[in-house]
Amino acid sequence: MTDQPTGVQKLNIIKAINAGLRRSMENDAKVLVMGEDVGKLGGVFRVTDGLQKDFGEDRVIDTPLAESGIIGTAVGLALRGYRPVCEIQFDGFVFPGYDQIVSQVAKMHFRSGGRLRLPIVIRIPYGGSIGAVEHHSESPEATFAHIPGLKVVTCSNPLDAYWMIQQAIRLDDPVVFFEPKRRYYEKAEVDLDGEPDLPLESARVALPGTDATVAAYGPMVKTCLDAAAAAADDGRSLEVIDLRSLSPLDLRAVYDSVRRTGRLVMVHEAHRTLGVGAEVAARVTEQCFYSLEAPVQRVTGYDTPYPPARVEEEYLPDLDRVLDAVDRTFAY
Amino acid sequence: MTDQPTGVQKLNIIKAINAGLRRSMENDAKVLVMGEDVGKLGGVFRVTDGLQKDFGEDRVIDTPLAESGIIGTAVGLALRGYRPVCEIQFDGFVFPGYDQIVSQVAKMHFRSGGRLRLPIVIRIPYGGSIGAVEHHSESPEATFAHIPGLKVVTCSNPLDAYWMIQQAIRLDDPVVFFEPKRRYYEKAEVDLDGEPDLPLESARVALPGTDATVAAYGPMVKTCLDAAAAAADDGRSLEVIDLRSLSPLDLRAVYDSVRRTGRLVMVHEAHRTLGVGAEVAARVTEQCFYSLEAPVQRVTGYDTPYPPARVEEEYLPDLDRVLDAVDRTFAY
Amino acid sequence: MTVETAAGDTPPEPELVQLLTPEGQRVPSEHYDPLIADITGDDVRSMYRDLVLGRRVDSEAVALQRQGELGLWASLLGQEAAQVGSARALRPQDHVFPTYREHAVALCRGVDPVKLLALFRGVDQGSWDAVETHFHLYTIVIGAQTLHATGYAMGIQRDGAIGTGDPDRDAAVIAYFGDGATSQGDVNEAFIWASVTNAPVVFFCQNNQWAISEPLERQTRVPLYRRAAGFGFPGVRVDGNDVLACLAVTREALQRARDGEGPTLVEAFTYRMGAHTTTDDPTRYRLNAELEHWKLKDPIERVKAFMVRGDLADQAFFDGVEEEADELAVHLRAACRALPDPTPTSIFDHVYVEPTPDLVAQRESMTAHLDSFEEEAAR
Amino acid sequence: MTVETAAGDTPPEPELVQLLTPEGQRVPSEHYDPLIADITGDDVRSMYRDLVLGRRVDSEAVALQRQGELGLWASLLGQEAAQVGSARALRPQDHVFPTYREHAVALCRGVDPVKLLALFRGVDQGSWDAVETHFHLYTIVIGAQTLHATGYAMGIQRDGAIGTGDPDRDAAVIAYFGDGATSQGDVNEAFIWASVTNAPVVFFCQNNQWAISEPLERQTRVPLYRRAAGFGFPGVRVDGNDVLACLAVTREALQRARDGEGPTLVEAFTYRMGAHTTTDDPTRYRLNAELEHWKLKDPIERVKAFMVRGDLADQAFFDGVEEEADELAVHLRAACRALPDPTPTSIFDHVYVEPTPDLVAQRESMTAHLDSFEEEAAR
Ligand SMILES: Cc1ncc(C[n+]2csc(CCOP(=O)(O)OP(=O)(O)O)c2C)c(N)n1
Ligand SMILES: Cc1ncc(C[n+]2csc(CCOP(=O)(O)OP(=O)(O)O)c2C)c(N)n1
Ligand SMILES: [Mg+2]
Ligand SMILES: [Mg+2]
């Protein structure tokens, strides 16, 4: 037994995921953590800090430097009954493992007629605004959410981080778990002993409101909440919805909201074309056709490669661009 | 000089692309063809038939069996001034090369501040309905169209095939070139000596019509034309638009059409969620908000892994599902 | 001078491990004979039977494909000895990660060959029970399964199921792949993983000298078994058409793995006698003379000659096996034709462990669409 | 018995190629001495200068990062000899494909170090002219550039620029990568491609013994240079802290490539003296004693000792180089701070050769958005 943190604690997302991993490993001896530098170093963001010390090198595996190998061996470990949690060091480095993820991980359950299960979690710190060099600030979630057989989720705050990682690990489906690295250090109170108040695959109303709906996920939730605060000062009430689950995409709360407000702004860091916002816009228009006062407005990263750090803030959606989009919906 | 076919010929898509490759290789000694089995065998679909015999092993390269290697060495060859045309044997086998495509090929021009160009064409036979085993029937175009820096195009008939492959090779941007393998053997007259009547990146009105708009690309264009013929028998006039270019997405003709018809059905084989149809629906709703009588209807492959061959026809969109969707747009 | 020897001036090739000549003569080997000392006449006869039945499953499947009953078939013709020899080296607790061509291995592991036909018919994507048979799903993406095998072997290590000395407990994994596959990143990463973790896995490469139309020299300029040394584990080249040699070499490699001594690469040097698959036309890229040359090394004929020579079987035995093969063929034909098509809505099953709301909705829309035809037909 | 020797019972390691001891003593070598017979005192002095300036660029960049002027820096500390020795072996027509740490190679190829700073400052992603300098862009995705290098070398072959005997025409490519990179599929695929095509490429692995926090044994259990033999080309291990040995070994390998004799793997055995990057904290995972041990093998000190010992330079020379380094540092500081930020709309440039309508529209919307602030401010 290791020192399992308990009680209500003020944690940032890193510490919350660490606590969630720790609890999962305590509860189930089959849970493994694997990836580059996850051992002694505790990962480049320290998300796995202390786990190797407490659970040993057999359960917290510093792997060779090869992402296809990380995912491919995780498949084998899962077939043997283990529950591997793979860390991909940064968003842009998941692609060497993309083939194993989309052609093997996503399909094994289906191909085997349901006989085989791959309870693998692939953790990916993602998104920008951290002043990094190339390949360290990407938002590739759409390239996973398009693939049947994968679940794709992302947390936006320490409480969700703590519970969602545990829920993802408990699930018998493979889960791609996106972590908003620009929010890693933001803190909140987490009751480590409670129960999650939402299923993994549910969206959450982060802020109720009446005039327009704003949907976002991961790092952009805080941006939208900030925008909502600013809008409130101007007398406009925005409802902010944290999607949390990108596949399956849970839009019930969005439909409800849009049927009340008639206006939706969808925000993400990923490129606009074929980003998650495209699917949200398409579905909301299908489901709320007669309620929409304006077409869904998308506030996203542009359709350019992620730019150099000195210009990334202009590339990324921010409070002003969100409010502009809200204004646009009112211009219809 | 090799035997360059000339005049007006009745060709299928395979022969048309072969003729286009041959002409490109004749015109520019820097054009190379590379991939698995492209040499003596002429590719598993014979698209490169006879090219190695005529242009030699230095220009038509049978590569080792590794897709990342194919794309990665093509990058080097392109930096040296060559224009490699890479063949990926089947859609499902592109993913081992996905990292090189999205992180290297797509970005080199941008990263270098425009100094370096990668005129690489990546040919991918795609789509289903050929009775194949796993990984041989996929439609992964959305995972490329989401990536800035890549152009993504697809042909639906021999004439387009002949010209588009030549235009793609001439372009200084990297192009992912999707070939509709279920239509490979359909024939049409091709004037080999003419000029293309459209830029590579333009959509084409395949059939003018007045009552509703149907947009499709690649293998689904014929399906939609068949549906339009059936609809005409019932007195309903469908306008069918062949998108041809998925990135950049040319929707001018679709907007024009929807502004007249008020109804759009978007058809593709790829999975529905975050398929190209999502982006089309989102953009059309943005641009034609007040013209739309009904939300854009999507007729697509389902959000399941591509199923076994004996049930693929039920998985794939067909004439009936297209007509059903047209009916749905009229129910609004 | 520390420059290693290049391809040109290598030391003489070590002999291919061979225990049976093409003429069926037993080649004595100080090293390998003890590894098959327990093999009785019964064992040889039973291996012969596996070889013949394996070949018959294959030829029957090719015929069924020609008749339109299968969408495709990847023939194992010529590779029976490599498959049966290596498969017979497995213990019940060992695990197999195949490509798409290991039909005779499947047979040895008790997989119903009708299930192989079902896959190539397009009815499903692998309906055998991998957990029960320890024979995992066919993998078509070249090389991907070598990493699964290595990960599985890492799991065996974690379960403490190596190096205990208990012959019923210590387990190993065997990964099958082709000569072409050795060029894939995944296979090389598997070598690295296995080496660094000392995982109990045997990499069994059937070098049939062709990857569709590409000859071996498009994948390597040195013999493949040598690849292993560079990764820090042993490599051995065995006559892949010699079932006894394949048995002995694989037994040794598997035992090393079970004993906790880590991975081995076995290169079974063989030849793809047929087309790559039923859609392939090898006359476009290889000479008939090559095929004729390899016919003389047929993996079944040499066992038969060995058995006749050593009085291990009489004509009645051979006739019996032939008869059994005929019966199997009849059964396969009938069973294949009787395979029911999947129901359309079955495609929504098993995408996830629990169906998602989206998929429930999509299934309903398919059902409504299909029902509309029935309604129309009923009218 | 044909089982290859396993990791345990390998033949004794061949000596590391070393021409200068850590104490600066020249080690004679029958094989390698002729390869550097032309090296004059001037050449040694000039190499010393490269080593010192390379290190100074590095330490200045680390300082600038600390001051918040750079987002990140990947220090080359300890690897100067491997980089300068190999870079000085290049001819003008050769080409370099680096990782993100080859700052001293860049310097030797005439890349303005300010451009290296610009990249790590986040101003651009590589603004040097790869065509002119023959020094390609930094590649951060581990191993990806080894395939580019191999493809480039295949292009050189097709241009007939190998094996002509013309020393100004025959060209080669050098690909840099680390010990960790050897685990990536791409690097192994590059080995295969280069071997099969006999491409004129030198794989130069700076084995600095760490991949961030992971020690060498997480990537391999045998010395890395041995990997090459399994792929059919020579591998050699050189003292990566010995600039002369690196020069000699790389010259030989490049010349083989230019002569049309194919690829070589050079493993430069060295040590990462600093953190992985400025965000890394190596005290979490490695012992200080290791660092202290390697300090004794410093790549610059030994050249200095060699020069003093052989009267190749006096104090004035050393002082002069120091002064030059100081000036370079002053220049770098000023030039780095003066680097203009990119304009926001510049992100739309060079996504494609010609801007697409979508990007034109997105650029316009950004401009309108930015203008709205100015309007607001103006009010
Ligand atoms: C990643 C990937 N690329 C391409 C293919 C297409 N393909 C199927 S089999 C084959 C050749 C395989 O050769 P080898 O590994 O020698 O096995 P063999 O078929 O000879 O048994 C190719 C290229 C594939 N299945 N997977
Ligand atoms: C594909 C990929 N995965 C992970 C990373 C993150 N990463 C950056 S450097 C590094 C270690 C590289 O080690 P090595 O190859 O030895 O080179 P060194 O940094 O020691 O020079 C890692 C894991 C990356 N850049 N690319
Ligand atoms: Mg083969
Ligand atoms: Mg290193």
TrEMBL record, chains A, B:
<dbReference type="GO" id="GO:0000287">
    <property type="term" value="F:magnesium ion binding"/>
</dbReference>
<dbReference type="InterPro" id="IPR005475">
    <property type="entry name" value="Transketolase-like_Pyr-bd"/>
</dbReference>
<dbReference type="Pfam" id="PF02780">
    <property type="entry name" value="Transketolase_C"/>
</dbReference>
<dbReference type="InterPro" id="IPR009014">
    <property type="entry name" value="Transketo_C/PFOR_II"/>
</dbReference>
<dbReference type="GO" id="GO:0016491">
    <property type="term" value="F:oxidoreductase activity"/>
</dbReference>
<dbReference type="InterPro" id="IPR029061">
    <property type="entry name" value="THDP-binding"/>
</dbReference>
<feature type="domain" description="Transketolase-like pyrimidine-binding">
    <location>
        <begin position="11"/>
        <end position="186"/>
    </location>
</feature>
<keyword id="KW-0560">Oxidoreductase</keyword>
<protein>
    <submittedName>
        <fullName>Alpha-ketoacid dehydrogenase subunit beta</fullName>
    </submittedName>
</protein>
<keyword id="KW-0786">Thiamine pyrophosphate</keyword>
<dbReference type="InterPro" id="IPR033248">
    <property type="entry name" value="Transketolase_C"/>
</dbReference>
<dbReference type="Pfam" id="PF02779">
    <property type="entry name" value="Transket_pyr"/>
</dbReference>
Automatic annotation (TrEMBL), chains C, D:
<dbReference type="InterPro" id="IPR029061">
    <property type="entry name" value="THDP-binding"/>
</dbReference>
<keyword id="KW-0786">Thiamine pyrophosphate</keyword>
<protein>
    <submittedName>
        <fullName>Pyruvate dehydrogenase (Acetyl-transferring) E1 component subunit alpha</fullName>
    </submittedName>
</protein>
<dbReference type="GO" id="GO:0009083">
    <property type="term" value="P:branched-chain amino acid catabolic process"/>
</dbReference>
<dbReference type="InterPro" id="IPR017596">
    <property type="entry name" value="PdhA/BkdA"/>
</dbReference>
<keyword id="KW-0670">Pyruvate</keyword>
<keyword id="KW-0560">Oxidoreductase</keyword>
<dbReference type="InterPro" id="IPR001017">
    <property type="entry name" value="DH_E1"/>
</dbReference>
<dbReference type="GO" id="GO:0016624">
    <property type="term" value="F:oxidoreductase activity, acting on the aldehyde or oxo group of donors, disulfide as acceptor"/>
</dbReference>
<feature type="domain" description="Dehydrogenase E1 component">
    <location>
        <begin position="52"/>
        <end position="327"/>
    </location>
</feature>
<dbReference type="GO" id="GO:0000287">
    <property type="term" value="F:magnesium ion binding"/>
</dbReference>
<dbReference type="Pfam" id="PF00676">
    <property type="entry name" value="E1_dh"/>
</dbReference>
<dbReference type="InterPro" id="IPR050771">
    <property type="entry name" value="Alpha-ketoacid_DH_E1_comp"/>
</dbReference>
